[in-house]
Amino acid sequence: MERMMLQLVMREEMSGAQSFLDYVETITPGYSRLDMCIQCGTCGGSCPSGGDMDHTPRHLFALIRADMKDEVLASNTPWYCISCYLCMSRCPQEVHITDLMYTLKSIAIEEGHVSENTAANLSETFLSYVESYGRSFELGLATRFYLRHHPKESMGMAGMGFGMLTRGRMVITPEKIKRIGQLRSILNRAKELEAAL
């Protein structure tokens, strides 16, 4: 808490430099309403992934206001956001929480804060499979995740994986969707639009 107060004082003393709060608000499409957050905690209490987050969205927004950029970008919170919009539908101030989570993920990727973030790595692996095959590849996703982040626990998952394979719930090799070129065109266009923002 003392560190947060010190950061707030330092932020107020900054002359002419753009705060992290201003930067996040500027690059988030539309009006994020982040400045309207009253720290009520409804977002964290509504989030189905809240228990896995190292900071609730409310706490993350307080860190943004305190200009604690590195701590925000190292957080797993944006990566655990499943974009269900439950937080936004319940927010009394109509803060665009999910949009802010996308913005924070983009900044974290851009500034190289995802190398050891397990949730970010899982997300990147998932996206690489979608871009390559048009769908997720569960066996590859789980294998890469466990071998990279929990190698000792990977053997304990083998029994469950074998059971899923024998019941046809999981495939051994990834399969491409039909017309993968069309999906890639859509994804490339989305990247172009995002880069133009």
| Proportion in β-strands | under 5%
SSE order in H/E notation?
A: HHHHHHHHHHHH
CATH top level of the largest domain is Mainly Alpha
Q: Portion of residues in helices? A: 55-70%
Structural class: mainly alpha
The best one-word shape is: globular
Count of runs of 4 or more consecutive helical residues? 12
Number of domains: 2
By CATH, the topology of the largest domain is Fumarate Reductase Iron-sulfur Protein, Chain B, domain 2
Distance between the termini: 35 Å
Determine Rg (CA atoms, Å): 19 Å
CATH architecture of the largest domain: Orthogonal Bundle
Molecular structure report:
The chain has 197 residues and is mainly alpha-helical. The chain has 2 domains: 109 residues, Orthogonal Bundle (Fumarate Reductase Iron-sulfur Protein, Chain B, domain 2); 79 residues, no CATH class. The protein is 61% helix and 0% strand. It is built from 12 helices and no strands. Helix 9 runs antiparallel to helix 10. The longest helix has 17 residues. The radius of gyration is 19 Å and the shape is globular. The relative contact order is 0.10. The N terminus is likely disordered.
